Amino acid sequence: MLNKRALITGITGQDGSYLAEFLLAKSYKVFGITRRTSTPNYERIRHFQDKVELIPGDLLDQQSLTSAVKIADPDEIYNLAAQSFVATSWSQPVLTGEFTALGTTRVLEAMRQVKPEAKFYQASSSEMFGMVKETPQNEKTSFHPRSPYGVAKTYGHWITINYRESYDLFAVSGILFNHESPRRGLEFVTRKVTNGVAKIKLGQAKSITLGNLDAKRDWGFAGDYVEAMWLMLQQPKADDYVIATGENHSVADFVKEAFLVIGEKNWRKYVKTSKEFIRPAEVDFLIGDYSKAKRVLKWAPKTSFKSLVKMMVEADIELLKKNSR
Ligand code: NAP
Ligand code: F7E
Questions:
Q1: Contact by Cβ (8 Å): 215, 87
Q2: Which residues are the active-site ones (predicted)?
Q3: Topology of 186-217+247-286+303-324 in CATH?
């Protein structure tokens, strides 16, 4: 049997790198779209770069996406690329809309025109729930996004459903709650904290400055979540699923747990707060109900909150030690 072919937008990102590894282990031929940057940004994929084929392209450029689908001739398309940092979406709202909202339509159009029989995965987000209408949030919970990012993702979600209904495409949305890893960008709160704790442990920093410590998130491990993306595309019928852990913790809980990894009980001694990191509108409380994914996909998270925090702090300590050698 011929190997399956997958095309990933956002392969250089956190999820793209885990998904590519997951698909390579399943003997897929993996193609990834990378955008032009002044210096290549391949840290997360360097260890398997020779096993994947990179195609230049950008979410802003329809022709490049159409051409990428022609080159890859994929059975599965995973649209993971986006302007994914919520805070930046207020300072660059139009760009966020272009990438995160219209970019999705461009990828869908490329698939519709070149390979309509392929299966499409859209990286939807719990940020669409925003000011939550019920707890926990499930596939039927209505949306109230609270940032230009959340609004753009809501568009991406609905255009995916619209293409499924209009053109009978196999197009699904995974509504993923926050998922983290040692490959998380340094600007996101979890990695900012674990990097800061590692620096404090190694005597390279004295404190960490954060924003709202009370916000609660349902944090899982990115390595577990990419399996759910794949499972969604293996189903007989295209449908949307919430992927979460069903547990939530505050930012303060995360900080506390991270300091415990280095044996420090008094985390407050090291944490400052600044208005700089407070958002114009906040998402206070998210917790996902993943029972549909459990029932249909037979998926469940494997990594606990405690082990996720430990994994991230330890990886950051190792990384800093390696960089200073
Ligand atoms: P990430 O680490 O920020 O990765 C984003 C990827 O998108 C990078 O590969 C980036 O390329 C690429 N990209 C950005 N703009 C692009 C453009 N104009 N053209 C082509 N590629 C572009 O994000 P992530 O955490 O892996 O998340 C993956 C997806 O899931 C995103 O759509 C995100 O919004 C969504 N999501 C994430 C979470 C989460 O908790 N992680 C939860 C729900 C949904 P460069 O490397 O060149 O910047
Ligand atoms: O913020 C609070 C902040 O930036 C989490 C993206 O992957 O998940 C992510 O979006 C919480 C917020 O992630 C700081 O106010 C406090 O309440 O790590 P974050 P996010 O906004 O939840 C969703 C599901 C996505 O789809 C997104 O792509 O932490 N917070 N102090 C802080 N946040 C940051 N970044 N920095 C702080 O200093």
A1: no
A2: 154
A3: UDP-galactose 4-epimerase; domain 1 (3.90.25)
- Residue 28 Cα to ligand 2 middle (Å): 33
CB atoms under 10 Å from CB of 40, counted, come to 12
**Token digits for 146?**
């609270």
pLDDT digits (tens, 9 = 90+) for 45-58: 999 999 999 999 99
pLDDT value at 1 more than 80 = no
Fold adopted by 5-179+219-243: Rossmann fold (3.40.50)
Probe target for ligand 1 pocket from 39, 80, 92, with the most ligand atoms within 8 Å of CB:
80
Kindly list the protein residues whose Cβ atom lies closer than 6 A to any atom of ligand 1.
9-10, 12-16, 33, 35, 37, 41, 58-60, 80-84, 99, 123, 125, 176, 178-179, 185
Position 2 scores a pLDDT of 83
In this structure, what are the phi and psi dihedrals at residue 9, rounded to the nearest 5 degrees?
A: -90, 145
Task: For the chain, give every domain's residue range.
Answer: 5-179+219-243, 186-217+247-286+303-324
